[in-house]
Amino acid sequence: MIWSDFHRTKWNEATNYAWKNFTTPTVRRMFSFLTVLGKAALPRDKLKELTGLLQEMKTTYSLAKICRYDPRLRRLPSGDYDYDAEFEADDDNQIGCIPTLPLEPHLTQMMATSRDPEELRYLWRAWREAAGKPIRQKYLRFVQLSNEAARLNGFSDAGEYWRSDYEIDGFREEVEELWQKLSPLYQQLHAYVRAKLVEKYGEEVVPRRGPIPAHLLGNMWAQTWTNILDMTIPYPGRTSVDVTNALRIQGYSPLAMFRLAEEFFTSLGLEPMPQTFWQRSMIQKPTDREVVCHASAWDFCNGRDYRIKQCTEVNMEHLVTTHHEMGHIQYDLLYRNQPFIFRDGANPGFHEAVGDVLALSASTPRHLQSVGLLGNVDDSYETDINFLFAMALDKIAFLPFGYLMDQWRWEVFSGDTSSSNLNSRWWELRLGVQGVSPPVPRTEQDFDPGAKFHVPANVPYVRYFVSFVVQFQFHAELCKAAGHEGPLHRCDIYRSVKAGRLLRNVLSLGKSRPWTEALSVLTSGRTNKLDVEPILEYFGPLRTWLESQNRGELIGWRENEAIVLQVTRSNASLITGAVLAVIALVLLVALVIIAFRRCRRGGNKNFNTASQGS
């Protein structure tokens, strides 16, 4: 509320100026940001309500726990598990439980390592029961208030307000066009992974031509598939880039992982983390209190205090996450000398991309070897395919999820999706765009989007889709600056001061210039648009390999072959279907009765004769 009061005061001051007539572009740009009030435009009582709802939803998410899986857990007649908070034994040897398992690290690790479909099904269902379902009504009210705030700022709804961060007309259509260009590569990956899962679990669990059940992909939301690399790796006997075992054998701690990430940044001539960062960051999950474990980076806006909050586990995935979060801090450090209004990413996707750009180099086999986490590395075709496949399970598998999350929210904000089809529309998108289906039936009593942090926390998500495109544009240009020759996927910009200088020039602009101009600086004027060509070039060898492996496989999926079919229907269609079924049943019964009566009138003689002759 203090920040909102301050923002409103500055907004009142800024709107007194005829700023659109200013001749200095930088000053005009400042005022264009200052005169958008955001949620502070709401009346004080509604602002307080919106803020309270947001905090309640985040608290529900952060405190959500479930029971440990046990085959003896009490089952309801529907076949679902009971989620009683009391532990007691029943006569039939089924038990209730006390929920004790939080998402981090327990459920995340279980989803990553379990290969028991029934356990995974239970974990998937239980988390959504605990984290998503309870906030459904609160979220609907939150949407109403968010839309009201957006309209007070001159936008049609909150979705349009979010899209305004990208400062271009037709942003929604541009994202759609980017996805259409990337979708064929994703479908090749999907077909190959589905075939491997069929080999593992059988067609009774994974349909050979249908969507993949979402609980089998190693992640609570099926957004990345890196945790099933062991089941799907193309050449099991060749080099793997998962250095989790090496990190643990060598005694790496979360702090050591952060120091390793920092050294990559400083090797480029970029900024070291300030001393306060090491003193005040939370890089391990505390044992004395509940926290939201979702990793995040914090700029306290005083030019000195920067922190990361992360419940770090010693594994490859968290090593990459550490680079990602430290990338946010590096961006914050590089634009700290800009006026306050410009201390932000050129667009939200730029901010998400910075750490991932460095992780593209830090994940290469040659780099991991150079820092002692991999032994001898060969440059064979098989090693290349293994590496690219592992990267694709992270980068390519994520793309449809990154795309569809805000497609759903934009529809909710606009009213195209309402309370009557809130959850079913979510699953229509998951099924149609991503090719995944839920392992259990879903209804409008559920709220599955709410089981993903960014929904209760109200964090826009299309930024991640944009970042996955732009990070490969960054990578291609930084590799040119570093003098790299050869395939793009083998590039490592480690210790290239020239690459670091180019990155500094782009990031230090902050938001002082439109992101299209920042992209033009990066590419030396060759383009100012988002471009999927670098990501397609990077994964080009893998795509060729996948196409050869997928001969005979269906590329894409048949929605009607999902293990759980009814999830694609809205409430309206379910009701319509039920009514039609009742009508059909009534007609059938009527026909049977009519036929029976006719039989009695015209067929008694035959009936009696048959009886007598028996």
UniProtKB/TrEMBL annotation:
Catalytic activity, reaction form: Release of a C-terminal dipeptide, oligopeptide-|-Xaa-Yaa, when Xaa is not Pro, and Yaa is neither Asp nor Glu. Thus, conversion of angiotensin I to angiotensin II, with increase in vasoconstrictor activity, but no action on angiotensin II
PROSITE patterns (UniProt xref): PEPTIDASE_M2 (PS52011)
Gene3D superfamilies reported in the protein's UniProt record: 1.10.1370.30
Transmembrane segments: 574-596
UniProt keyword annotation of Glycoprotein present: yes
UniProt xrefs under SUPFAM superfamilies: Metalloproteases ('zincins'), catalytic domain
Positions bound to chloride: Y166, R463
Name under which the protein is recorded: Angiotensin-converting enzyme
Origin species: Petrolisthes manimaculis
